[in-house]
Design goal:
Helix content: 25-40%
Distance between the termini: 53 Å
Structural class: alpha+beta
Number of strands: 7
């Protein structure tokens, strides 16, 4: 448990401390274990502050990856809009993305939008869910659909790039 200022009031927030593959707590720049708020906790906090409305969601593609972008209004009826985006992990071999990649991406995108609305932030916009996913992906080489290592977006279509271009990039 921790406390945070939410909707102008100090509130109790349920937090988790994430651990790396070796079992050590993930730490911030100060060397102290970082506490993160889960998406379901951010939604609970938003409900306490007038609720939120999801106005729009869309799938976008960039660098041979798909993303889900949501637009929320928080608090509901306020006219204040926030956008959150999350990668859709199609083709995952295990975990929640194996069975429900769209639903998981939507949940993460809503959590990120609430983070931009400053709901449940404890020094980071990233939710516990996002940090856990990023930690799992670290060290695993990203591969494009053609099997080549994924390149940064700024190298796409660059003939001087050291990696071969995929069929879609040559067209």
């Amino acid at each position: 448990m921790s406390t945070a200022i939410i909707c102008g009031q100090e509130r109790t927030v349920h937090v988790i401390t994430l651990r790396g593959s070796g079992g050590a707590a993930l730490t911030g720049p100060d060397g102290k274990p970082r506490e993160y708020v889960t998406v379901d906790e951010r939604i609970r906090l938003a409900d306490e502050c007038g609720g939120m409305s999801m106005l729009d969601s869309e799938i976008i593609e960039a660098n041979e990856q798909h993303f889900l972008r949501v637009t929320i209004e928080f608090p509901s009826g306020s006219g204040k809009q926030y956008i959150g985006t999350s990668v859709i992990n199609f083709g995952a071999q295990r975990g929640v993305d194996f069975t429900n990649p769209l639903e998981n991406a939507e949940t993460s995108a809503v959590g990120r939008a609430l983070g931009f609305a400053n709901v449940g932030n404890l020094g980071s916009i990233a939710s516990a869910d996002e940090v856990a996913q990023a930690t799992r992906r670290q060290g695993a080489p990203q591969r494009a659909q053609d099997g080549h290592p994924r390149r940064p977006w700024w190298q796409i279509g660059n003939p001087a790039s050291p990696l071969p271009m995929s069929k879609g990039q040559r067209a």
